[in-house]
Amino acid sequence: MNQPICRISGQPLTKVLDFGQQPLGNGFLPPEHFISEYFYPMEMGFSEKSMMLQLIEQPAPEKMFHEHYAFYSSTSRFMERHFGEFSHQVMQSKYLAKADPFVVELGCNDGIMLKHFAQASIRHLGIEPSRNVAEVANVNGVRTLSEFFNENVAEKIVREEGQADAFLAANVMCHIPDIQGVVKGIRTLLKPTGVVMFEDPYLGDVIEKISYDQIYDEHVFLFSAHSIQYLFGLHGMVLIDVQPQKTHGGSMRYVLAHADAYPVSDAVTKLLLKEQDLGLHLLPTFEAFSKKVEQSRADLVSLLCNLKSQGKRIAGYGATSKSTTILNYCGVGPDLIEYISDTTPIKQGKFTPGMHIPVKPYEAFKTNPPDYAVLFAWNHAEEIMANEKAFMDAGGKWIVHVPKVQVLG
Ligand code: TYD
Known about the structure:
- The protein has helices spanning 61-64, 77-92, 114-119, 131-139, 151-161, 179-189, 203-209, 225-233, 266-278, 283-309, 321-330, 362-367, 381-387, 389-393, and strands at residues 14-22, 40-47, 52-55, 102-106, 123-127, 144-145, 164-170, 190-201, 221-222, 237-245, 251-258, 314-317, 340-341, 359-360, 372-375, 397-400, 406-408.
- The chain is of the alpha/beta class.
- Helix 5 (151-161) runs parallel beside helix 6.
- It binds thymidine-5'-diphosphate.
- Thymidine-5'-diphosphate (TYD) binds at residues 75-76, 318-322, 342-344, 362, 377, 379-380, 383-384.
- Thymidine-5'-diphosphate is lined by residues 75-76, 318-322, 342-344, 362, 377, 379-380, 383-384.
């Protein structure tokens, strides 16, 4: 195979993580599609030049984001609240012009964030490549284009609607292999005083929590302040603020602007120093991480096999994309996990990608709870634990793998 190349620096990538053949993280499927299921080698590479951890190979975007895409943002109350807060922070910020501000969101999904701007009568535009999801946003009163964003789309928006005050994205930027095209588009789209504010799962949390399940086909990059500063720096933009978030098991919100538009906050300086302590800019950090991931797999498989040999019933809670990486990397199928319950109707009645564990509605968990539930939606632990007192009171126990494999409850 040819030497893989970093999408940011153009330098050779060093392979640092290998998860073997993996299916699509969100590719929940009916049995008639098992035979034609798509797999690809899931490996991560790192470049010390760009400091960007990235998938070496990624399935074509059309395979992942299409009319059957199974992810809707508005499935969690916590996420609803989070995006309400994010939008109000933007509305109250100094970055929006007083007169007729214009806000663009990339990957607006079903409108979970932009609806707040729509409700406040702020001029907005969502850009969402999944057509079915974009239709839901439009029905929710959020004006949405179904396109893949790039410089041409940015130019078209500027021609028709003018430049934007704020360009927002949540859990989107890390999905885009041609991120350079997106950054060029952002530079074109933003006013001289405009800002881009986006958040994604944070590499520092992944390394500290050994949450390797953040790695799947859709997450082509895992960002740090170092890699974001390098990437946007190539296009004349500067990281001016960072704000850690609890979402997705630990995310970072990055704020960037055209060079010299705003001062750089202390939070940026502090985070860069912390990342240097963690070694997020250096290759050996990922080689050490790879060993920890292997240990996590060994611990989880041995726990599940032990419980099963004691005759315990085990189910999963939350058919997350993240769980696809764990199940396939650990080789855990329906012999160990009876079913996974999930509240998303489009996933119910289907089977998990690769390992083919049945996905059942939440009612299955409620009426026929297992002895142990693997908390695949661990990023929603607070909300779920609060809702599942009855399960725990009846002796039900949780299995979590972050920050280490353990039984709770
Ligand atoms: P999400 O957090 O988006 O994870 P990923 O990005 O890895 O897919 O998905 C959470 C999933 O868990 C989603 O399918 C809905 C489901 N879920 C439940 O079934 N019950 C719950 O109480 C919560 C909060 C989520």
